[in-house]
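User: Can you model how pyridoxal-5'-phosphate sits in this protein?
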Amino acid sequence: MKPNASAVAAQAGNAFLTLQSPTHTFSSSNAPSGRGLVCHDRSFRVLSMTRPIRFGAYPLEDYRAHRDSIQQALQRVLEHGHYILGNEVAMFEQEFASFVGVTHSIGVANGTDAIELLLRALDINEGSSVAVPSQTAVASVSAIVRAGATPLFVDVDPVTFTILPESLDQAIHSPVGTQLKAVLAVHLYGNPAEMDELRDLCNEHNLILLEDCAQSHGATYHGKPVGSIGRGAAFSFYPTKNLGAIGDGGSVISNDTTLADKVRWLRQYGWRERYISDFEGINSRLDELQAAILRVKLPFLTANNKRRRSLATIYEKGLSDLPIQTPVPRPCCEHAYHLYVIRVKQRDALMKYLTSRDIPAARHYPRAVHQQPGYAFLAQRSLPLPNTEALVPEILSLPLHPYLAEDDVEYTVDAIRRFFA
Ligand SMILES: Cc1ncc(COP(=O)(O)O)c(C=O)c1O
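Assistant: Here's the modeled complex, given as structure tokens:
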């Protein structure tokens, strides 16, 4: 019996990606660079080594970079037999809290739950509203709705894409601002929001400042890691994040012990004591296996972010003379470059041009949240969001993650320059 192509590839040690065509099978190699492409005909003779694969998927590359340690960590959990809220979650909570420079980190099931639990622990629910940019992942907003509160959209800065303090000020003084209890600052794409100005406004108007750090692990604002600035913060460990699990995961971060305790109870049925629900909680626990994986990856986060910043510099230099707005890191901040998002008038044509050349350009996001059909009900009471509406058709994410080669970024720059030539 003839072995199938993936079995052949597996024997050759390269069964990671197989692409089938009617006559040929292509397999990606697992060489450390992950870049070789081998072409087989139907009789499984190797025909040629062709152009290296560019732009490997980040979650897979990240797994490959830590394969042995991850497998050992998983084995450790499997053999230990404590599968829910065991030692790995407890250790990861300590290690992540220390990374962010706060006292408490509570592992939860995902980043959306982290925001919801943060709000619920602060009793921000029916009758309260939370200011949030509409230019964000829908999860920032859906978590507010799930907590029972009402999102109040605010506009963003046209260059940094984070909350515009003037727009927050306008929201506070608008008729719908009277129920405002909190502000959820989103450090979108890894760029820290203008926290000093937001904090001043929050202090002045007795609002709670919270951070959505799902895209900004390791970013800093005036030397302080994001997540340590507001009263509490939420992180996501979705696999594509700068610190990503191999599945879902999230964390609530705070220096406030009362708040942290309440989140800890709410994440597990409202139990303070086992089987006694003092509160109406939910089940949202960080998985023990995911915690073990995150412990393997956390020590590499700072170096990976540095690598992202160094690749971003190649884009910045290569695109500076084109009619493109590249990301602008604040001088006081370290951008985590979760995404490299440019602003360009010819967005759709450029995206088509790049994707036709197998360069994975994407839109984050094709619509702001108030433009999403599922959230149209919130748009009715929204303030005008002119900056948000102007940027949505112009934003384009270029490939960026720490496992890309300089050459991949230069290749993308070249393609963009050709588009404009
Ligand atoms: C800004 C932002 N907030 C919240 C979330 C929610 O995280 P999760 O997908 O882990 O629920 C995400 C994830 O995409 C995000 O990008």
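A couple of observations from the model: Residues 1-51 have pLDDT under 50 and may be disordered. The two ends are 54 Å apart (CA to CA).
User: Helpful, thanks.
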